[in-house]
Description:
Layout: H1 7-20, H2 33-45, E1 49-55, E2 63-72, E3 81-88, H3 97-111, E4 116-122, H4 126-134, E5 138-149, E6 152-162
Pfam families: Acetyltransf_1 (PF00583)
Protein name: N-acetyltransferase domain-containing protein
Domain N-acetyltransferase: 1-164
Amino acid sequence: MIQKADLDGIWENFNVVVAEGVYLPVYTPVISDWEKKTWYNDLFETGNFCVIAQDLEGVQKNLVAGQVTIENLNWEAADHVGLLGIIVNKDFRNLGLGWALIEYTKKIALRRGKSKLNLSTLATNTRGIHLYQKCGFNAIGFYSKQYLIQEEYVDELLMECFLEEV
Length: 166
């Protein structure tokens, strides 16, 4: 689980992916300490959690190579469902890190009472979709033209995974 000391690395990783402009429907990087600390405090107050993978031996020691967050839904009747979000640093893609992070996080989610995980991704994110399917997620629908990215409309794909089937 993350520590306050991990915040800068988590948000550096997030901001690198934001700058790529193809994987997240976000344009603005997170740079303020207030925003970072508010997210961290909210994470624990709401029972959400975040798992990170760090490059302990690389050029940038302790670089956050990837992160997975599980957030609770806002409805009491959906306490068994978590919303998964994942970001993998571009230098660590195609190495199995995303798969390992998701599989590890699924075990934690199951221990925390989750029996189902949902996620959404850009329909153009073929690499991510392949990873999610490999991790047991199935496509269940989409929102048409949900995002306007680089002056083109992009659909949002919705996926789910039942943890008792894993």
